[in-house]
Write a structure and sequence with these properties.
The chain is built from ten helices and ten strands. The chain is globular, with a radius of gyration of 20 Å. The chain has a seven-stranded mixed sheet. The chain has a three-stranded antiparallel sheet with strand order 3-5-4. It folds into two domains: 73 residues, Chemotaxis Receptor Methyltransferase Cher, domain 1 (Orthogonal Bundle), CATH 1.10.155; 187 residues, Vaccinia Virus protein VP39 (Rossmann fold). Helices cover 39% and strands 18% of the residues. A hairpin with a 2-residue loop joins strand 9 and strand 10. The N terminus is likely disordered. It starts with 10 loop residues before the first helix and ends with a strand. The protein is of the alpha/beta class.
């Protein structure tokens, strides 16, 4: 097993990493991500008993169908999330859902980069506070490219400190506290978990399966990792998945007004699908 201090990582290696991750999943790494790429991938290089990143990258390029590609992608994707992150989004979601459910329509939401699950579970917790919500009229789809975080999300188990800021009423109704060896952890009750469907999905794949139509899509802090043409393509495809007047929720640093004309702003980092005649 190689000593981590012996790992050789050159500028050429980084450029190869950047090219490979872009070709595979469309993520555009800039020059400031050199250290991140090294630190995230070093463990994989060591696991294979290698001393040079070049040998690891050669191994990947020589086996296009290797399961190691998924480890490579998992290592380079960033998963920063929290329950009710950007709380104003959930206020908007609740109001939008109330209007549609009041009109007798079902309400469907897609969390397109669900990470470890805090976002789609926050969506579920929000919708379950809307009068008349049931499994029959509500569906939440949660996807991510990273298989490891999806496993975490589908289990619905978190350190108790991750939910410490939630309202006591929500904690009592929807969470189970661990005991014994699970002390210090909580798990979402099945009552809530059954509203969610998890699956792996790559937003940059050329052809999307038949999806939706959704009333709302969350795609927060994802587009910043793609170049402008890729962003535009993803946004066009998301517009096709949305119901008329459906909402798109983006991250606080994302602005799409000059990228795609399929949406118009209707709140803080909230966009409404434009209904063309």
């Amino acid at each position: 097993m190689a000593d981590p201090r012996d790992l050789k990582f050159t500028l050429t290696d980084f450029r190869r990493v950047r090219k490979m991750v872009y070709q595979r999943v469309g993520i555009a790494l800039n020059d400031s991500k050199t250290h991140m790429a090294y630190s995230r991938l070093a463990r994989r290089v060591r696991q294979h008993g290698l001393k040079r990143f070049a040998d690891y990258l050669d191994m990947l390029e020589g086996a296009e169908a290797s399961p190691e590609w998924q480890h490579f992608i998992n290592a380079l994707t960033t998963n920063l999330t929290a329950f009710f992150r950007e709380p104003h989004h959930f206020d908007t979601l609740k109001q939008h859902a109330q209007e549609r459910l009041r009109a007798g329509r079902p309400y469907n939401v897609w969390s397109s980069a669900s990470s470890t699950g805090e976002e789609p579970y926050s969506i579920a917790l929000t919708l379950l506070q809307v009068p008349g919500v049931s499994l029959a009229n509500t569906h939440i789809v949660a996807s991510d490219i990273d298989t490891q975080v999806l496993q975490h999300a589908s289990a619905g188990v978190y350190d108790a400190e991750r939910v410490a800021s939630l309202a006591p009423a929500l904690l009592h109704r929807f969470f189970l506290r661990g005991v014994g060896r699970n002390e210090g952890k909580v798990r979402l009750k099945r009552e809530l978990r059954q509203y969610l469907e998890f699956y792996q999905f790559n937003l940059v794949q050329e052809s999307w399966p038949q999806m939706g139509p959704f009333d709302a899509i969350f795609c927060r802090n994802v587009l910043i990792y793609f170049d402008k043409p890729t962003q535009a393509r993803i946004l066009r495809q998301m517009a096709e998945c949305l119901m008329p007047d459906g909402l798109l929720f983006l991250g606080h640093s994302e602005n799409i007004q000059h990228i795609c004309d399929a949406f118009q702003p209707c709140g803080r980092t909230v966009y409404r699908r434009v209904n063309h005649d």
